Amino acid sequence: MITVSSKDFLQIPILEFIISAEKVAHVQLGNNAEHALLVLTKTGYSSIPVLDVKYRLQGLISSQQITDEILGLEHIEYERLPDLKVDDIMKKDIAVIHVDEKFQKGLDLLVDNPYICVVDDEKTFLGILTRRVILKQMKKYLYQAQ
Ligand code: AMP
């Protein structure tokens, strides 16, 4: 059996573990909050990436951010959803990882984030690295080391 040292394991390129962009649910700049909420609800994800027309990453939007935005004093103002743009609600200050990074960097970032968006030099969105995928790899590695 081939065993990998933990040092080598941490140096594996993240490229092998990315969920590619075409499989990732997203919304675009200019989309309204109603559309974003629909995508989030249908997919069951708590947050998804926001991309521009050139597929560059601009931020993340979550159902919690949207609900927060339409929370009135007496009730939730659903009627405002069509007029709100994701651009004005999304979180712009987000953790990203470059596609050439290694497992260790991904692991560090995933401690505080359920998933990390993967980008290239032009900020083009290439996919995501999720906690689930990284944990699966760690499980494989730890079990084989026993
Ligand atoms: P997981 O580790 O698979 O539970 O994924 C963690 C988070 O990553 C989810 O809650 C979503 O916000 C995001 N995510 C995972 N897979 C996708 C996907 N295919 N499209 C969009 N977001 C995703």
TrEMBL record:
InterPro entries noted in UniProt: CBS_CbpB (IPR048125), CBS_dom (IPR000644), CBS_dom_sf (IPR046342), Diverse_CBS-Domain (IPR051257)
Pfam families assigned to the protein according to its UniProt record, in alphabetical order: CBS
Domain CBS: residue ranges: 23-71, 86-138
Keyword terms of this UniProt record: CBS domain
Record-linked SUPFAM superfamilies: CBS-domain pair (SSF54631)
Protein name: CBS domain-containing protein
Organism of derivation: Psychrobacillus psychrotolerans
